[in-house]
Amino acid sequence: MAILVTGGAGYIGSHTCIELLNADYEVVIVDNFSNSNPIALQRVQQITGKTIKVYEIDLLNELELERVFQENSIEAVIHFAGLKAVGESVVNPLLYFEKNLISTISLCTVMQKYNVKNIVFSSSATVYGLPETLPITEDFPLEVRNPYGRTKRMIEEMLHDVYISDSSWSISILRYFNPIGAHESGLIGEDSIGIPNNLMPYITKVAIGELKELNVFGNTYETSDGTGVRDYIHVCDLANGHVAALKKTIEMNEVGIFNLGTGRGYSVLEVLRAFESATSLTVPYKVCDPRPGDVAIYYADATRAFKELGWKAKKSLEEMCKDAWRWQLNNPNGYLKRKKQSTSSK
Ligand code: NAD
Ligand code: UD1
User: Fold this and answer.
1) One CATH from 3.30.1330.30, 3.40.30.10, 3.40.50.720, 3.20.20.190 for 2-330
2) Catalytic residue set
3) What are the distances in angstroms from CA 20 to CA 10, 46, 56?
4) How far is it, in rounded angstroms, from Cα 346 to Cα 343?
5) Which member of 31, 103, 131, 212 has the lowest number of beta carbons within 10 Å of its beta carbon?
6) Ligand 2: distance of its center to the CA of 149 in Å?
7) pTM over 0.90
8) Ligand in closest contact with the CA of 346
9) Which atom of ligand 2 approaches the CA of 296 most closely?
10) What are the tens digits of pLDDT across the range 66-121?
11) Which atom of ligand 2 is nearest to the CA of 227?
């Protein structure tokens, strides 16, 4: 029996494939490489010494997708594929409803047809909106503020309805906080295209000299040093969270929602200082206006994942910084030969 990983060539997907292979799962990948490169998958195989089966298919193509279910004994699906750029989703919401929501409908329809009813879904902490208290538990009220977040919430709700209609489904919804870092080999990592929107890839691009300085978005928030606080989680810890969730999804028939975070927050300046100390580099920065729509503080209560999945994040901020830097240094142009131009970068 194999695990189908949609979007398996992407940032989180490729790291998760390593942990799945290390745990002796057979892995089949469906990816259209719209925001990734097949080289990532060669490197996953190089790191693990194991082989994976790869289909270059767009999830919206149901007929092609059926072929994957016909040719393999799929036991469960980990569903990463989708677009993730918040700003792009505001400009082009229909693209996001098509590529995230419709493609998930297509996936679940095919799963149902082939009687594969175990799914682990990549959601996001973005579904919580503005938290009134901290840390954020899974039963906090949801409030989405952009089309990207709305697609995540709608998919979560859709999966609930699917379960209500047929309780032989088993569904794990994973709400990620802020994944950063890279595999310690330095062979795979986050292949940001253009100017990154997110903090860690921006820092590494300043450190390598590709960008001049970090723009710190605001220093008057009600936080220890006035800069925004987030729950950064090492991508390999996150990947392991998927293996833990997968086991539970296969064993049980229920809908589970889990925060995947470390449970502690770091400010922008704390991350910057940690990066400098982990790499012995100096990263220039300047303070700018706050980014519209940003929340001051955001961090997870990850107790449920520990109690019910037996999972918790282990890696330190220092390891996240060191690994992010190793990836950047060894791969200044990411995966180099990009196969197709991306439609999405966060
Ligand atoms: P990514 O862009 O690196 O990976 C997504 C993968 O899906 C890519 O390989 C892309 O080519 C593929 N893909 C996209 N649309 C497809 C389609 N229609 N058919 C087939 N393949 C398709 O993104 P990531 O950072 O690895 O994120 C994975 C998932 O986790 C996404 O659903 C994202 O919304 C979610 N998420 C990510 C973050 C984050 O900070 N990276 C945070 C919260 C949630
Ligand atoms: C982003 C996503 C969100 C996703 C989350 C987790 C956006 C708008 N939001 O939010 O949907 O769920 O990641 O992966 O992309 N910062 C700077 N300078 C920079 C970049 C960031 O100061 O150049 C600050 C931000 O103001 C914030 C912190 O760094 O305080 C983290 O920012 P970022 O990495 O973009 O993550 P989120 O804001 O949490």
Assistant:
1) 3.40.50.720
2) 148
3) 15, 14, 20
4) 10
5) 212
6) 14
7) yes
8) 2
9) 30
10) 999 999 999 999 999 999 999 999 999 999 999 999 999 999 999 999 999 999 99
11) 30
